[in-house]
């Protein structure tokens, strides 16, 4: 409580406010930007089957012939009322997004949940032996994983665990009306593929930070006073690494919500990433705009949290001491 | 119905036909996976755009007529008789048809359906309104209507069968899970867009109840994932699987790769823009057709699952003209190009991956055009911009494909699109004749005439016809092809 | 006392790497750098060395390795070896340029903001907040938008650079935040060193490890953004870009695994090399870190 | 643990080398249980390296090329077995500021050092440990982070951590350098008590007086070799080696030199420089013309630096409540105060690194911006600072040459290479470092060497005022004498004004003209040094008295009037 009343609280309030302002800017950028994308939602949907007159007619019916700013104002108004509009498929966007955002967030959340311990453990393990075979192995392994595209990894996992061993379902066919969380067996491989790809970045950054901390006089001193290695990692290395790691985790996590397209495809997982790409490809502007706004808001929130984390995790900043 | 599994060159490893001789037994659940459209899937029969939408809605709703082997067959309607001037027709409906909620199917439902499907509020207003005046239908009695047309139509049944014209209940505008009521063999039990539909058998189906208790459709966009679902036992049938999968083969004694037969192939083509240089010159169009290496394209893009095309669309449709494909003749092609003074002419070949193989075939086509002295280059764009009318008009060649639609449909579409249309008087006349013709013989002559023009100086380069492959458990039986093999009819399917 | 208690290596605590590297001897180091140089040369000269052009289709599709085509052919019948050779140069240049630009820009923004500290909100407002907004746009959309406005390589490089900048800036900021309070930075501020010098000499060497790790990893990200751009049909990449080769080879992977493996391995090799090189470059700076 | 009580810790022919040559050469040493051994020697003689070797640790760049170190008969080089450090041998490092974990509260640091404890005992343990080293044992203090402590507080926390597990032997590397005399007395008392309890000690110190009172045996290190070894009393009174004689001489000479007359005014002639031979040098004439800054020193009347009403805050706590001070050209003002009173904060306010919340700082009458960023080049050059913590003050990646060249380039505008090299050489020489050190990185320097580099860096720009925050704390008596002589010479020759923050009562007494005592964030007393610290008495006791006097008790001393105008 004292924290919130103090400098941290002020900082947080300010950040949330700027976050809101940024979101407003983002909404304009997104709306106008998406509108400028090549392609036309009507022709994209009608395909070659429609005559130009019909296209024009439909454009008018969809209000696409109005100036972009007018449409922006209408859209924003709707958004504020909680109505992100209607997809070009005729469905309300809110209905299309309802579950999918949650499903993707579930995937990303689980992934981050595993990412934190995995990347910390691997990063610290490598950092404790810089330049040694163990370090090389971890680093090279992580790099190999990140170099192999996620859909290749995902396909490999399917071949191994589903087709080969028959341990897990190959496709996440979640029955209608069920939430994915009730089918953990269908989550294993999507989460694992994302984890394998996403962890490389965190591992490498954590390793780099930890190496420099471990080489410093503080760790030397702790070791000289006979503090156990595990305690050193916990009390001196991890706290020093966390401010950077938290950035990476949060940004990676939010990135997974919209960015796990290919993994969602391979497993036919009903997430928002696939929807985003389908909508982009099909020129379904209202859907694209809504998803981008949601992802944008989530990212901005994550960034605020990351900023806050840096302050909270760095005593010098948290206590509002001199710079 | 349409057998013939022997002559699939690529499927030497014994691709079976979709329609197996086995008949399904009563009961059980059939699980099928098709490509879906994610969250935009819908139970509205006029909103769906993806295979799973089509396949699903085909068994929930019925059409007035269906296509079988390219010919219309009565379904909810028994008869469509054109008036003398061809400017209207009388539609007679089947009696004793019940909706899933038990009410009776009547002419009012048809009138509403016509209005609903052609309403400009629909995301995809029906193309039928290019031919019929759908808003001005008059209901004569409970089972009879009169439908005015906008041009003389001699064979309205074919048109009604060719375009998705599902019948919905009078007044229906909401197609949520509870309100998706049709007359088809299955009713909706559960639906989640982009994921799954569960259908249960409708016992009072007018065509006789289906064998299977339950049909489960899953949407899986990735072809490999569809294959995997069947392979690992999560599904019994996967529609539209890639050639490469078939080529690699799938082990498992209870699995088989099936083709839809050689009358149900997709024609792959490049449509040349005959309204601008250089393809406004029939010589250059012919040169392009001589330049294209059909065998190579079939081998590369279709991996041999298909055969070279004769540049005409809709092989397998009624009245299709079985001309022999042109032989590749680069010398002659170069000569023609030179003669037309089109050497070094710029050719932009526009493509997007609308279907697998579009971009690859375009790349090969461009190289082949270069060999005859045209300065060709591909223009690969995103799906969203592919059909932009202005851009299409700027392109010299557009990659395109079609299943064996009835000829009026395909040529009607092409005529409606400036950059696809062939500005040729003889062709135009023959096409008009064919549309208005009231007897089979007249139509046959007219279509032969029109296709002769196409074969001589046409603007379509249908380089190959491709098999439609699916993966099924061997005991899956009763799968039918109606209008398009990619969207098979599962109303009579089940497990043997 | 835990059994894993520190057993200080001869080289001293924490920086065994220093002695580790030196113990492998200069010969191993030369061999390593020689190998890197050869690889680089191979990539840069690849298009010249390739037996076939990037669009040539010398064989049937999915042909297994044979005399003329040691790696076989891909789905279009193109020679896999030639394609891999053609794809390296554009990809490497695009990737390195894009990541370089993104990192320099991001790191400068992050370091500047950290340096300004709590005293001045201006850099935060002018640098970090716009980058936050940028971070909020999904990379795929960013690529699409920028390539629409600026088609071609330049657009691609810009898009990838911009997509990487925000996180780069954040990593730099978070790392620098731990360092800027040190007395030697204060001493430098007190003697009025220029911002450039403060960033480049006082702070950068102490956070170089994290920045290099960040940049190194984002190189692979760049490879796949290039691929994604090709996949979405917005162009900017060439046919032979490794990322695109991979995306296109996946469907036929069971028919011709080499068409997939070759570019994947190429990307992996470059990624591992780039990153390990970054590590050893950053190594000296860590050796004496306090 | 009653086994072999004769030798607990031994070094035999220990030889450690760097690339440049040996740091320790054939060092033999043994320590019996409960014995207190002092290691003295000039800065850079290898004391810290020896201490670390006794813990089984070698810094980067140092190789073990001969001999062995054993604890209870077991080799600990090159690898110290588990269970030696911490519980058998405790360690207090030379550089507490750099050693404390910035992410851990004091409490956590102490508990970590103490090892596993039942939950209920933790609070009492923390309190007990803090109180043993003279720090407040309350929870609020225990919850602080290292950056919220003053240098002396940090050092005591480190000591407390070393005591946490009651080790059999303590290795102490300059454990009292940052402590004020009362605190130091307290710590020494605590160490004495430990010794009574039979805890052995290896104690590295520059403070020969403390050594004399404390150690059983003394080893004099010189250039990595043992110059002599013997009972403390003997070595400190009658050293046999040259190195020993030098140290002892420097350590005792200072008292004899306390014979100068307090200057009547800042400009009334050079103060009796400690060792400056030519006292007749003109005050301001010696500045070379190229020193753009500082060359005009003395052109105006009044103090060169004056602060009035300085208020400084750390977060919400106010550390300085309106401090006034003034330093005149050539004058040396010593600032005394208990640890944590705000001396470093005051120094940082004056240099603009910690902008004061209120009050002004004026240079020759011109007000300076509170933030150093707002000051111009001349003003920056005019105020030099030697920060309290030399390890942090040097960039770990920059060699000594760069550290010295930067201010030369930046503040003096020198760009000529040869000139720079010359100046670097001169600067190193002036702080008694060999020119070869220019290429070294801070990590390759001893504590005292780092401190001298930091001093050289501060002098590089030829400031008018030099603020030394404990600039001699890590130096042996000889080096300290050299540095003080240098300052005196500069004061005399260039009119440099010095603000000397120190805990060393002797330094304050011998080197300063005037004293300023800080207490409770205010100036508690000020006056000429000879008056406040009259010769004769032990300076430590006098300072202790000054510092511990109740606030206000010292204030109305008549000495204030001595310097009337320049004061409050
Ligand atoms: N960043 C900070 N935040 C909060 N409190 C601080 C901070 N820095 C110092 N302090 C507190 O301010 C007071 C003055 O600190 P300062 O470092 O100026 O003391 P000092 O007189 O130099 O002590 P020492 O002689 O031990 O170095 C101390 O009580 C210290 O705990
Ligand atoms: N890591 C290193 N690499 C190279 N030389 C070093 C290293 N550490 C110390 N030295 C050198 O070894 C010598 C001894 O250093 P050490 O730190 O032991 O001195 P010290 O006696 O503790 O001095 P001080 O009293 O100044 O702390 C010095 O000349 C120093 O420059
Ligand atoms: Mg030392
Ligand atoms: Mg201090």
Automatic annotation (TrEMBL), chain A:
InterPro entries: BPD_transp_1_N, MetI-like, MetI-like_sf
A biological process term (GO) from this entry: transmembrane transport
Family annotation (PROSITE patterns): ABC_TM1
Name this polypeptide is given: ABC transporter permease subunit
SUPFAM superfamilies linked: MetI-like (SSF161098)
Main localization (coarse): membrane
Domain ABC transmembrane type-1, chain residue ranges per copy: 101-306
Keywords annotated in UniProt: Cell membrane, Membrane, Transmembrane, Transmembrane helix, Transport
Species of the source: Streptomyces alkaliphilus
Automatic annotation (TrEMBL), chain C:
Species of origin: Streptomyces alkaliphilus
Protein name: ABC transporter permease subunit
InterPro entries associated with the record: BP-dependent_transpt_permease, MetI-like, MetI-like_sf
PROSITE patterns the UniProt entry points to: ABC_TM1
Annotated transmembrane regions: 29-46, 91-118, 130-150, 156-176, 203-234, 254-278
Primary localisation category: membrane
Record carries keyword Zinc: no
Cellular component terms per the entry's GO annotation: plasma membrane
Keyword Transmembrane helix: yes
ABC transmembrane type-1 domain location: 92-278
UniProt KW keywords: Cell membrane, Membrane, Transmembrane, Transmembrane helix, Transport
TrEMBL record, chain D:
Segments forming domain ABC transporter: 9-248, 305-545
Family matches, as Pfam families: ABC_tran (PF00005)
SMART domains in UniProt: AAA
Keyword tags: ATP-binding, Nucleotide-binding, Transport
Gene Ontology molecular functions: ATP binding; ATP hydrolysis activity
GO biological process: transmembrane transport
Keyword hit for Transport: yes
Sequence segments annotated as region (Disordered): 244-304
InterPro entries registered for this protein in UniProt: AAA+_ATPase, ABC_transp_ATP-bind, ABC_transporter-like_ATP-bd, ABC_transporter-like_CS, P-loop_NTPase
Stored PANTHER family: D,D-DIPEPTIDE TRANSPORT ATP-BINDING PROTEIN DDPF-RELATED, TRANSPORT ATP-BINDING PROTEIN
Family stated for the protein in its record: Belongs to the ABC transporter superfamily.
Name of the protein this chain belongs to: ATP-binding cassette domain-containing protein
């Amino acid at each position: 409580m004292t924290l919130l009343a103090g400098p941290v609280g002020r900082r947080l309030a300010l950040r949330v406010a700027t976050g809101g302002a940024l979101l407003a800017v983002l909404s304009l950028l997104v709306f106008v930007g998406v509108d400028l994308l090549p392609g036309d939602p009507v022709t994209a949907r009608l395909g070659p089957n429609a005559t130009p007159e019909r296209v024009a007619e439909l454009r008018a019916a969809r209000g696409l012939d109005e100036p972009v700013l007018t449409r922006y104002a209408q859209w924003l108004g709707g958004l504020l009322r909680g109505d992100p509009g209607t997809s070009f498929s005729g469905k309300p966007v809110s209905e299309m997004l309802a579950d999918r955002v949650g499903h993707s967030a579930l995937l990303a959340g689980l992934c981050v949940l595993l990412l934190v311990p995995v990347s910390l453990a691997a990063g610290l393990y490598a950092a404790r032996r810089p330049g040694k075979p163990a370090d090389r192995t971890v680093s090279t392994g992580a790099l190999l994983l990140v170099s192999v595209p996620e859909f290749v990894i995902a396909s490999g996992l399917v071949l191994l665990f589903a087709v080969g061993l028959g341990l897990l379902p190959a496709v996440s066919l979640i029955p209608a009306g069920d939430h994915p969380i009730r089918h953990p067996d269908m989550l294993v491989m999507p989460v694992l593929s994302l984890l394998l790809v996403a962890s490389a970045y965190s591992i490498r950054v954590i390793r780099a930070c930890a190496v420099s901390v471990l080489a410093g006089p503080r760790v030397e001193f702790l070791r000289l006073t006979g503090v156990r290695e595990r305690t050193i990692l916990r009390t001196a290395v991890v706290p020093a690494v966390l401010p950077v790691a938290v950035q990476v985790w949060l940004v990676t996590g939010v990135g997974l919500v919209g960015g796990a397209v290919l993994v969602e495809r391979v497993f036919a997982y009903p997430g928002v990433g696939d929807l985003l790409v389908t909508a982009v490809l099909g020129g379904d502007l209202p859907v694209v705009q809504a998803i981008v706004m949601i992802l944008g808001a989530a990212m901005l929130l994550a960034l605020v949290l990351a900023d806050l984390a840096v302050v909270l995790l760095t005593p010098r900043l948290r206590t509002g001491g001199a710079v | 119905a349409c057998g013939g599994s022997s002559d699939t060159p690529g499927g030497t490893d014994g691709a079976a036909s979709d329609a197996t001789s086995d008949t399904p037994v009563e009961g059980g659940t059939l699980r099928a996976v098709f490509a879906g459209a994610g969250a935009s899937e819908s139970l509205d029969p006029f909103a769906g755009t993806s295979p799973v939408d089509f396949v699903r809605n085909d068994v929930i709703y019925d059409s007035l007529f269906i296509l079988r082997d390219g010919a219309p067959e009565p379904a909810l309607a028994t008869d469509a008789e054109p008036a003398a001037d061809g400017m209207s027709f009388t539609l007679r409906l089947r009696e004793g048809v019940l909706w899933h909620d038990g009410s009776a199917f009547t002419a009012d439902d048809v009138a509403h359906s016509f209005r609903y499907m052609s309403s400009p509020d629909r995301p995809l207003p029906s193309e039928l309104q290019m031919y019929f005046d759908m808003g001005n239908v008059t209901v004569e009695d409970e089972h009879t209507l009169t439908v005015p047309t906008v041009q003389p139509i001699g064979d309205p049944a074919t048109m009604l069968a060719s375009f998705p014209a599902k019948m919905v209940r009078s007044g229906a505008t909401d197609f949520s899970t509870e309100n998706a009521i049709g007359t088809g063999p299955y009713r909706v039990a559960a639906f989640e867009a982009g994921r799954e539909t569960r259908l249960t058998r409708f016992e009072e189906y007018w065509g006789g109840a289906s064998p299977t208790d339950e049909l489960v459709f899953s949407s899986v966009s990735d072809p490999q994932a569809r294959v995997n679902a069947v392979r690992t036992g999560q599904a019994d049938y996967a529609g539209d699987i890639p050639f490469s999968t078939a080529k690699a083969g799938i082990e498992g004694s209870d699995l088989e790769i099936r083709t839809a037969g050689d009358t149900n192939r997709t024609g792959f083509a490049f449509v040349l823009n005959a309204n601008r240089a250089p393809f406004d010159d029939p010589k250059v169009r012919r040169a392009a057709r001589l330049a294209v290496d059909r065998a190579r394209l079939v081998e590369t893009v279709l991996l041999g699952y298909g055969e070279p095309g004769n540049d005409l669309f809709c092989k397998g449709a009624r009245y299709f003209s079985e001309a022999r494909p042109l032989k590749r003749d680069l010398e002659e092609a170069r000569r023609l190009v030179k003669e037309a003074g089109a050497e070094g002419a710029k050719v932009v070949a526009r493509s997007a991956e609308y279907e697998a193989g579009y971009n690859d075939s375009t790349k090969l086509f461009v190289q082949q055009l270069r060999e005859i002295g045209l300065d060709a280059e591909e223009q690969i764009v995103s799906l969203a911009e592919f059909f932009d009318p202005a851009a299409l008009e700027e392109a010299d060649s557009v990659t395109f494909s079609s299943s064996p639609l009835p000829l009026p449909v395909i040529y009607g579409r092409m005529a409606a699109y400036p950059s696809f249309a062939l500005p040729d008087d003889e062709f135009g006349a023959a096409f008009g004749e064919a549309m208005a013709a009231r007897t089979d013989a007249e139509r046959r002559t007219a279509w032969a005439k029109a296709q002769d023009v196409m074969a001589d100086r046409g603007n379509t380069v249908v380089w190959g016809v491709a098999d439609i492959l699916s993966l099924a458990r061997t005991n899956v039986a009763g799968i039918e092809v109606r209008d398009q093999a990619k969207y098979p009819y599962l109303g009579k399917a089940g497990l043997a | 006392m835990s059994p894993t208690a520190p057993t200080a290596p001869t080289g001293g605590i924490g920086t065994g790497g220093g002695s580790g590297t030196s113990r492998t001897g200069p010969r191993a180091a030369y061999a390593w750098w020689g190998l890197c140089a050869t690889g680089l040369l191979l990539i840069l000269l690849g298009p010249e060395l390739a037996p076939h052009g990037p669009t040539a289709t010398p064989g049937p599709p999915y042909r297994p390795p044979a005399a003329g085509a040691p790696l076989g052919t891909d789905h279009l019948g193109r020679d896999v070896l030639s394609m891999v050779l053609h794809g390296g140069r554009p990809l490497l240049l695009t990737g390195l340029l894009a990541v370089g630009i993104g990192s320099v820009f991001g790191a400068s923004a992050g370091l500047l903001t950290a340096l300004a500290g709590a005293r001045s909100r201006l850099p935060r407002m002018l640098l970090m907040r716009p980058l936050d907004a940028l971070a909020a746009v999904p990379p795929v959309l960013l690529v699409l938008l920028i390539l629409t406005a600026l088609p071609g390589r330049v657009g691609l490089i810009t898009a990838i650079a911009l997509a990487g900048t925000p996180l780069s800036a954040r990593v730099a900021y978070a790392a620098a935040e731990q360092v800027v309070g040190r007395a030697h930075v204060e001493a430098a501020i007190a003697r009025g060193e220029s911002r450039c010098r403060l960033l480049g000499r006082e702070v950068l060497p102490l956070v170089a490890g994290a920045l290099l790790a960040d940049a190194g990893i984002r190189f692979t990200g760049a490879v796949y953004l290039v691929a994604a751009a090709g996949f979405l049909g917005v162009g900017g990449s060439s046919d032979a870009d490794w990322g695109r080769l991979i995306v296109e080879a996946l469907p036929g992977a069971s028919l011709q695994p080499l068409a997939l493996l070759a570019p994947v391995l190429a990307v992996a090799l470059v990624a591992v090399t780039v990153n390990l090189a970054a590590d050893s470059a950053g190594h000296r700076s860590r050796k004496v870190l306090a | 643990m009653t086994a072999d009580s004769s030798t607990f810790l031994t070094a035999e022919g220990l030889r450690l080398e760097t690339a440049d040559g040996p740091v320790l050469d054939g060092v033999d040493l043994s320590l019996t249980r409960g014995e207190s051994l002092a290691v003295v020697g000039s800065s850079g003689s290898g004391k810290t390296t020896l201490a670390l070797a006794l813990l089984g640790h070698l810094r980067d760049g140092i190789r073990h090329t001969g001999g062995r170190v054993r604890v209870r008969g077991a080799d600990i080089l090159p690898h110290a077995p588990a269970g030696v450090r911490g519980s058998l041998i405790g360690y207090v490092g030379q550089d507490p500021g750099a050693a404390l974990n910035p992410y851990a509260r004091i409490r956590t640091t102490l508990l970590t050092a103490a090892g596993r404890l039942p939950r209920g005992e933790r609070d009492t343990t923390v309190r007990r440990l803090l109180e043993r080293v003279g720090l407040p044992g309350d929870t609020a203090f225990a919850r602080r982070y290292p950056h919220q402590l003053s240098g002396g507080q940090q050092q005591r926390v480190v000591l407390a951590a070393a005591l946490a597990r009651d080790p059999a032997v303590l290795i102490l590397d300059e454990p009292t350098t940052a402590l004020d005399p009362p605190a130091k007395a307290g710590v020494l008392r605590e160490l004495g008590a430990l010794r009574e309890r039979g805890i052995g000690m290896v104690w590295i110190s520059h403070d020969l007086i403390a050594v004399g009172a404390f150690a059983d045996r003394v080893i004099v290190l010189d250039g990595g070799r043992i110059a002599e070894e013997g009972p403390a009393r003997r070595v400190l009174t009658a050293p046999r080696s040259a190195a020993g004689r030098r140290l002892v001489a420097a350590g005792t000479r200072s008292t004899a030199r306390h014979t100068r007359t307090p200057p009547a005014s800042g400009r009334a002639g050079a103060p009796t420089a400690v060792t400056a031979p030519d006292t007749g040098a003109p005050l301001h004439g010696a500045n070379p013309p190229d020193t753009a800054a500082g060359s005009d020193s003395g052109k105006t009347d009044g103090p060169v630096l004056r602060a009035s009403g300085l208020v400084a805050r750390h977060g919400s706590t106010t550390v300085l409540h309106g401090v006034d001070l003034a330093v005149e050209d050539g004058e040396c003002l010593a600032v005394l105060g208990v640890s944590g009173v705000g001396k470093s904060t005051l120094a940082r306010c004056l240099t603009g690194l910690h902008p004061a919340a209120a009050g002004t700082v004026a240079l020759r009458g011109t007000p300076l911006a509170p933030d150093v960023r707002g000051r111009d080049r001349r003003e920056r050059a005019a105020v030099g600072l030697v920060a309290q913590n030399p390890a942090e003050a040097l960039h770990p990646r920059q060699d000594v040459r760069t550290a010295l060249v930067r201010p030369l380039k930046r503040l003096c505008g020198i760009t000529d290479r040869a000139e720079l090299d010359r100046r670097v050489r001169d600067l190193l020489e002036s702080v008694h470092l060999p020119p070869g050190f220019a290429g070294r990185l801070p990590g390759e320097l001893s504590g005292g060497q780092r401190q001298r580099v930091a001093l050289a860096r501060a002098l590089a720009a030829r400031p008018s005022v030099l603020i030394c925050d404990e600039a001699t704390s890590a130096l042996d008596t000889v080096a300290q004498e050299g540095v003080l002589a240098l300052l005196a010479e500069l004061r005399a020759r260039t009119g440099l004004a010095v603000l000397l923050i120190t805990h060393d009562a002797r330094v304050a007494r011998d080197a300063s003209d005037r004293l300023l005592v800080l207490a409770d964030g205010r100036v508690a007393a000020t006056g000429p040094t000879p008056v406040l610290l009259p010769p004769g008495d032990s300076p430590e006791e006098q300072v202790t008295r000054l510092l511990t006097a109740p606030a206000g008790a010292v204030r109305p001393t008549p000495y204030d009037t001595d310097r009337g105008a320049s004061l409050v």
